[in-house]
Design goal:
mainly alpha, DNA polymerase, domain 1, hpI Integrase, Chain A, two-stranded antiparallel sheet, 14 helices, 2 strands, globular, Integrase_catalytic
Length: 311
């Protein structure tokens, strides 16, 4: 049953390998929990058994450390999905996890850097025309200019970006092109590519990528490493960390550039649903957390500028 559910998640839901590995680990622990309570079939499971599993996750034991709310919530989500699947497949006649809610998580506001800091970061890639410097600048411009996840950026192929002004698969209006990103669950979206990212990509594609590709065996990947193969997520992370260190910035991550992309759009007056589409969020609820950031900024501006703001 467990293997059937995981196959369903992989094939029909298109979950990533990392997510599947986490679900597999959580659900194996759940099955062990049920067996320890003398339960051998899903038809025997009661709501109290699921609640007890949640309590065990939060408390921990000799073999497992206590899980934080976010990790426990992921495990509960996996369990709820498993029982829904069992009910749908006729393995059980009821869903004991239906009313069990995951633990409430503290809302953490996404961190963003300022526009000036973004400019410092990109400038820290270096003005030199070495292939790696040109690649690094193009990578950071794409991450910030499109709000792409790091996996989406390194997953780009040359055919996913317009090549020159006559690329037949994309609209071109002079200063702006579009790039195709493939997000979670295999969902694809088209995102505008601004002038700075376009110029950085042009420089990389013309003056750097051919030189890097000469060291490899041929790959359609857009961003290449020094050996001519596809740049990995770890490699992209190291590019960002090196640029951040040179720029004197700490704690900068690829996802922080994505947060900055969204925050700066909202600060500039963009509608939250437009930002949702650009980020590839399935629900606008996920995007709305960024509006709290901009509200904080409004308070700061009000407190600094209004003559009767400070009492």
């Amino acid at each position: 049953m467990l293997s059937s559910y995981l196959a369903h998640l992989a094939v029909e839901r298109g979950l990533s390998a990392n997510t599947l590995a986490s679900y597999r680990r959580d659900l194996r622990r759940y099955v062990e929990h049920l067996r320890a309570r003398g339960l051998e079939t899903f038809a025997q499971v009661a709501e109290s058994d699921v609640v007890a599993f949640l309590a065990a996750l939060r408390e921990g034991d000799e073999d497992h450390p206590a899980l934080v709310a976010s990790s426990a919530a992921r495990a509960v989500s996996a369990v709820r999905g498993l029982h829904r699947f069992a009910l749908r497949e006729g393995v059980a006649g009821h869903d004991p996890a239906h009313e069990v809610r995951p633990p409430r998580q503290l809302r953490r506001l996404p961190k963003a850097i300022t526009v000036a800091e973004v400019e410092r970061l990109i400038a820290a890639c270096g003005p030199e025309d070495s292939p790696l410097a040109l690649r690094n600048r193009a990578l950071l411009e794409v991450l910030y200019g499109t709000g792409a996840r790091i996996s989406e950026a390194v997953g780009l192929a040359v055919d996913d970006v317009p090549t020159g002004s006559a690329h037949e698969d994309y609209d071109h209006d002079g200063d702006q092109d579009q790039v195709r990103l493939r997000g979670k669950g295999g969902r694809a979206r088209i995102v505008p590519l601004g002038r700075f990212a376009r110029q950085a990509l042009d420089a990389y594609l013309v003056r750097a990528r051919p030189r890097l590709a000469a060291h490899g065996r041929g790959t359609p990947a857009l961003f290449l490493n020094a050996r001519g193969g596809r740049l990995t997520r770890q490699g992209a992370w190291e590019v960002l960390q090196a640029a951040a260190e040179r720029a004197g910035l700490s704690g900068v991550s690829p996802h922080m550039l994505r947060h900055s992309f969204a925050t700066h759009l909202l600060d500039g007056g963009a509608d939250v649903r437009v930002v949702q589409e650009l980020l590839g969020h399935a629900s606008v609820t996920t995007t709305q957390v960024y509006t709290l950031v901009t509200v904080d900024k409004l308070r700061e501006v009000y407190a600094a500028a209004h003559p009767r703001a400070l009492h």
